[in-house]
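[User] I wish I could look at a protein chain and see how it folds. I have put the entry right below:
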Amino acid sequence: MCKKCSGGFLLVEALFALSLLWMTTAVLLPLLMQIAVERQSLTLEEKAHQLLTIALYEEPLVGETIVADGRTVFRLQAREEGGRMWNVCVRWNDYAGREREQCGYGKR
């Protein structure tokens, strides 16, 4: 190596910087993937809320109804609570594999 060389990067410095970049990417990539899955799950939750609203106020349901949306299956279950009060529950599995449920009450 040259004793009077000034400036420039050494190979060791470049490898160290590259390894820091790889470690940062390795830490952040799973977090970004989890954020994407949660965003898709929120989209499914919004669709379930829309189905619940339709089932409560617009379309009369009796018993259990299955609604397929892409690869997600929503199960709507309606039962009369007494008088004109109805309880409707929507169940589905989100993209993380968790079983989710939303319920609501309405009059008809």
User: Anything to note?
Assistant: The chain has a mean pLDDT of 88.
